[in-house]
Amino acid sequence: QVQLVESGGGLVQPGGSLRLSCAAPGSIFSIDTMGWYRQAPGKQRESVATIKTSGGRTDYADSVKGRFTISRDNAKNTVYLQMSSLKPEDTAVYYCNAARYVMGVRYNHWGQGTQVTVSS
After folding, report:
1. How far is CA 17 from CA 10, 48, 69, 87, 90, in A?
2. What residues does 59 pair with on adjacent strands?
3. C-alpha distance from residue 43 to each of 38, 46, 91, 117 (Å)
């Protein structure tokens, strides 16, 4: 069970910016979608942003639209999340996800999680 490798989390002040990176090992192939999910204390994990490998279609949670931008480098199996105008409500553990299909079966691969804390 190979994990995705995340980096970029940290402590920032409200209004600040942060860029998260996530790299999938080469052994994880035929990735259909990569994305970012987050989980705040006492809350369920939610989708933040996703991006399709083919075509690059993106989807954002309403709460982050206009502030976050997801991008990817397919050749490197890497996805990024540029976070701007950060709010305290963005505080959470952010998990990278890669979804792929093998013989019609969906496999979800997850990163270890990176803490993002937005506080004065």
Report:
1. 10, 16, 11, 10, 11
2. 50
3. 9, 9, 12, 15
Closest CA to 80 of 9, 25, 15: 9
Question: What are the strands, taking DSSP E only, across the chain?
Answer: 5-7, 10-12, 18-23, 31-39, 46-52, 58-60, 68-73, 78-83, 92-102, 105-110, 114-118
3/38 Cα distance (integer angstroms): 16
d(CA 21, CA 72): 9
Q: How far is CA 70 from the centre of its chain?
A: 8
pLDDT digits (tens, 9 = 90+) for 34-47: 999 999 999 999 99
Average pLDDT value over all residues in the chain: 95
